[in-house]
Structures are given as C-alpha cells and as structure tokens.
Amino acid sequence: MTRDYNIDGVRTNSLEAFYDEISEILIPGAEWGRNLDAFDDILRGGFGTPEDGFRIRWSNSADAKKYLGYKETVRQLEIRLQKCHPTAREKVRAELAAAKECRGPTVFDWLVEIIRHHGPSGDEPEDNVSLALE
To answer: What is the pLDDT at residue 2?
Structure first.
C-alpha cells in the first residue's frame, strides 16, 4: 500500500515555507539542503521516506499555485541571481525577465515538475512517487 504524505497549500506560501512543510511532513528530524536539488534527492529515498515509493497529496494546491506564482518566482530568481556562478547569470537574468512578464514556469511549476520526475511518466519512475493535487 502506498503511503500518503499530506502537505497543505495554505501553508506553502513561499518556497521556504514549502521546504518547512516538507521538513515537517515528509522527513521530520532529517537535515537536508533546503534547495531544489536537495528536494529532488529526497524524492529518491534514503531520508526516511518509504523505499517502495509514496504519494504526496497537496491539499489546497490552488492556493499554493497562487502563492508560488510569478511574484514568488521573481523573488526566488533574484535570490538565485545573487548566489549563482557567473557563467549562469545570463540564463538566470533571462528567466527573471520572463518571470517579471509573467512568462515561463513558476516556483509551483518547478516543484510539480520535480515531483513528477520521480513518478510513472518521469525520468526516474522507479522511485514510485506520485502527486495528487487537491
């Protein structure tokens, strides 16, 4: 039987709040990098999540989609621009410009893509992670 982990979109009103929710619900007590790459790693297993896969049930996902929309995407890309390697700045600037014009993927899209990457139609289906947006 697949284990369900329920995260609340009302509580995921920023990327940092999403990381807090993942820390509390998915991997309580575990230390992790609190970034997109580390979140991707968590979904592969080994952080206390079931080795045979699990389902993330994202309740109030419409609220999360709104909170993690372009305003949050712009904020996150501005942070990324300050920290990224000089060779990546041009790409991040282009992503930032698009986000400011409400184009391209949002933080919500980034997270959904990462989760789905580990599911049946993703590149790592063996992880058996599914997503239910509710």
So the answer is: 77
